[in-house]
Design a protein that fits this description.
227 residues, binds adenosine-5'-diphosphate, five-stranded parallel beta sheet, Rossmann fold, 9 helices, single chain
Length: 227
């Protein structure tokens, strides 16, 4: 069974870029590796529903309770379970561009205190206990300040699920800040998380520099896994 290596971070933090770079580098050194990206907007029924949700079809984002939103994201993964388990079976590593931690950070960010803590527990129960999705071996958090992420988003090409440059959620800086805070807390609390500081001395590090750091960390993980 291949370990799941999950790339996380706020929107515009460079997840897609780094997930692809990591996959390419691992395959260059001869590892069997596959990249999966969640949500699977085009491939699953629930993925389509998430696109509709992010475009405001079910109401303003703050009108949809985060518990209900979290079920859409978890169900997209449940619908993708055969694909996920197939990839885990065939490969030496499976890279996920977003996974369960995105659900924790994004939905958790909409609540605080006890309500947040309860929702985080509930999401993990749904995804790991009820839907029996595999646990990540390593979660790589790409940590960037919100302003840097928003600059990246503004420069980004249109996505498949929205014709807007930034979807409703990405446009909201205060929300992204709360998401970042939840991610940082999760990184502190969980020993299988690895935080990458993507900005140094106020400057975003180069894609290659960040990719080197991640490759090194993941290679170490794969070596200990093989023992
Ligand atoms: P995410 O998947 O987290 O939303 P992307 O990988 O799509 O982020 O990156 C968002 C935008 O920022 C893309 O246009 C990408 O080329 C650019 N980008 C990513 N990482 C860096 C970096 N280290 N330096 C400069 N631009 C970057």
């Amino acid at each position: 069974m291949a370990p799941l290596i999950v790339i996380e971070g706020i929107d515009g933090s460079g997840k897609g870029t780094q997930a692809k770079a990591l996959t390419d580098r691992l395959s260059e050194v001869g590892r069997r590796v596959e990249l999966l990206s969640f949500p699977r907007y085009q491939e699953t029924l629930f993925g389509h529903a998430i696109g509709d949700f992010l475009n405001g079809r079910f109401g303003q984002l703050n009108e949809v309770h985060p518990f209900l939103a979290s079920v859409l994201y978890a169900a997209d993964r449940y619908e993708s379970k055969a694909v996920l388990l197939g990839a885990v079976e065939r490969n030496e590593a499976v890279i996920c561009d977003r996974y369960v931690p995105s659900n924790l950070a994004h939905q958790g960010a909409k609540l605080s205190g006890v309500e947040r803590a309860e929702l985080l527990q509930t999401i993990q129960r749904i995804e790991f206990d009820i839907f029996s999705l595999p646990q990540p071996k390593l979660v790589v958090l790409l940590d960037v300040p919100v302003e840097v992420a928003q600059r990246n988003i503004a420069a980004k090409k249109p996505r498949s699920y929205t014709d807007k440059a930034a979807d409703l959620q990405e446009a909201d800086g205060e929300y992204l800040q709360r998401v970042r805070d939840v991610y940082l807390r999760l990184a502190d609390e969980n020993s299988n998380w690895y935080r990458v500081k993507s900005v140094r001395d106020g400057q975003q590090r180069s894609v290659a520099d960040i990719a080197d750091e991640i490759f090194e960390r993941v290679t170490r993980e794969l070596l200990t896994d093989a023992k």
